[in-house]
Write a structure and sequence with these properties.
This protein is an alpha/beta fold and 97 residues long. The protein has one domain (3-89): Glycogen Phosphorylase B (Rossmann fold, 3-Layer(aba) Sandwich), CATH 3.40.50.2000. Helices cover 37% and strands 11% of the residues. It has 4 helices and 3 strands; from the N terminus they run H-E-H-E-E-H-H. It has helices at 3-6, 21-28, 53-65, 79-89, and strands spanning 9-12, 32-35, 47-49. It has a 3-stranded parallel sheet, sandwiched between helices. The chain starts with a helix and ends in an 8-residue tail after the last helix.
Length: 97
């Protein structure tokens, strides 16, 4: 097992970077993510958006002490979807999301 697969939570404290690959990797490994920025219009199970440091601490403690089952590992976007969306940003291909 990798360190990420052993982790329950990934804290992503950046105030400006909403979507980092490390967040996607954490969700794929079954960890929950807590961050300040919402990365996309979509909501992802296990990705918690908080407003400030105090809320981040409170959410972290709540998740660590929770007896609820964590969300299943998830892949945010398939490689094909990611490639299609990047190409669409530059005017290539279709613009379906």
């Amino acid at each position: 097992e990798t360190l990420m697969q052993q982790s329950k939570i990934l804290l992503h404290p950046s105030a400006y970077e909403g979507f980092g690959m490390v967040c996607a990797e954490a969700l794929a490994a079954g960890a929950q993510v807590i961050s300040f920025c919402k990365p996309m219009d979509e909501d992802f199970d296990g990705w918690h958006i908080v407003k400030d440091k105090q809320e981040m601490i409170a959410k972290t403690l709540a998740l660590l002490h929770s007896e609820a089952s964590p969300p299943s590992p998830q892949l945010l976007l398939a490689m094909e979807d990611t490639a299609r969306r990047v190409l669409a940003l530059y005017g290539y291909g279709d613009n379906k999301s």
